[in-house]
Design a protein that fits this description.
Elements lengths: L7 H14 L13 H4 L3 H10 L8 H5 L8
Length: 72
């Protein structure tokens, strides 16, 4: 049995889903609001999001809608 390693963006997506479920974030909030929650790690996540074609003005719902984080 092999264990599948989750893409780091899947982990972030799950964390954001949890924040939306607990009403800390709203699906209509802009992605830049995540910066307040990630603090020192935000620069890394910001770069990852930008590499996947997101802008900081995109709504959180677009991040949550991603079904696969393939890097081609």
């Amino acid at each position: 049995m092999t264990q599948q390693v989750l893409h780091p963006m899947v982990k972030m997506q799950r964390q954001v889903e949890s924040l939306v479920a607990s009403k800390i974030l709203s699906p209509s909030d802009r992605i830049w609001k995540i910066a307040f929650l990630y603090g020192d790690k935000w620069q890394y996540w910001k770069n990852e999001l930008l590499e996947f074609g997101f802008t900081l003005q995109d709504p959180v719902s677009e991040l949550l809608d991603v079904e696969g984080w393939d890097e081609d």
